[in-house]
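I'd like us to work through together how a protein chain folds, taking it slowly. To get us started, please write out a protein record for me. Label the sequence line and the structure token line clearly, so we can match residues to local backbone shapes. Once you have written the record down, we can walk along the chain together.
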Amino acid sequence: MHYFSNTLRENKRILILILLGLSIWAFLSFFLKANYNEKKNSYMSAELDSFKSKVFTTLEMYETFTEYIFYNDINTDKVLDLMAIATQSNDEQLQSLRWDLYDLLIEQYQLLQKYNFRQLHFILPGGDSFLRLHAPHQYGDNLLTVRDTIRIADQERRYITGFEEGRIFNGYRSVFPLFKDDHHLGSVEISISMASIMKVMASLYPSTALKFVLCKDMVESVVFDVEQINYTPAPFFPSYMLDKEVFQIYQDSLSTENYTTYSRIVEDIVRTNQSQINALKSFNTVVSYNDVDYMVAFLSIENLSHEHVAYLIGIYQAKTARIFGFQTFFREWLFVTLFFMLFFISVWIYDRKQKQLNHLACTDKLTRIMNRHRFLEIVEREVIQYQRYQRDFSVILLDIDHFKRINDQYGHNAGDDVLKQTAIILKSCARKQDAVARWGGEEFILQLPETGAAQAARVAERIRQAMADHLFVKGIRLTASMGVAAMSEVESQDIDVLVNCADEKLYQAKKEGRNRVVIYLRP
């Protein structure tokens, strides 16, 4: 009996999961038919989410690439110096500067085109177009009233990205404000077209055909009249237009047979799903054509004002779609299969949730680095290692100087951005084996294993310089003060004592004028 009780306790979780699985199986046995539509909707929602994920993953890749281009090729002294002169020049001088900037960047722009980038566009403070590398003879028009990205970058002086129709082309735009010595010099736009997204997705997901249509009213109200030739009405889609370049990519990617099939499928859906299309929301549906099931997803593309401006349509064969009409054949087998599927999925979800909860419990919600609780757990283990093997380690306690002024002057959102960027700086300066955590408020802490006070001080100095060199949100420049303490230098082998020593030196750094590193040494 004792053995049975122990076995029962040890397998309590498994028994609970088995009972839960049996309950779900019994529920499905009685209510499979009633839940048919619900399961179908769930499947369709998952397929639509999967399509969205493919698109947005591709966009995130390009956004990362765009940031690299900006910081390596655009945000340079040569470019900024030209823009600084342009902000103080007359029309005749601007013309010369425009071609100087064109000559400086044309090779980089031509290289960007090879990677499917469409536009590189410089805008002066106030919103006047200064130089379109893709159309250098079109300039001087003011974009504040027609381009939200330009307005936000110019007036709020912050980075902005999103889909937007332009005077010449549409695309996903990333607009960066330009600064030199805290002076606003305008902004630069780096953008890709939907054609770029489609090319990348075609290589990653060759079984999915993509079609793109834009709202006709939006195109006609924003695009230059002379550039309207880049668009043509969508014959199968009233009130929408085709971007000729994007449509050509779609057409070239398909065989004649598939092109005809997909065109008929889309036309049929547009004709029979007007209520969903008029709702201007994303949706998907399954269509059978020539005894083949196709999943067709209509992904709503929104601008920065969250207004629907286009549809990206994905079409691919849906091999599992016929299960929705399957109700009688091998029903008992289906019940058993569903039971085991749900059972193992439940175990997987349970395990995943536990891992997620453990991660959340150890991570600071704002900065995405470890929190104080997790940091102390790591350092406690380092103390044990020190006691056993005398492996020295150090901590760096950092406080952002005058952080309260940021919140008072720019608001808590700016303060939050500063904390996030500080965390990124610390991670970039730290080694892989170092632990970086938010200690509380504007204080951060690092633990450097097998590192003495002198070496830790060099790391701290590198962090201090990186903080001083970094341009934070809204063009803010900040510094940080740090206290450094090594376990071998403190009297007691206790983490609280070690941190208190670092805190003591941090306070000294603040008192001596801030923006400095002070090391704790044994008296």
In short: The mean pLDDT is 84. The radius of gyration is 30 Å. The first strand starts at residue 117 and ends at 123.
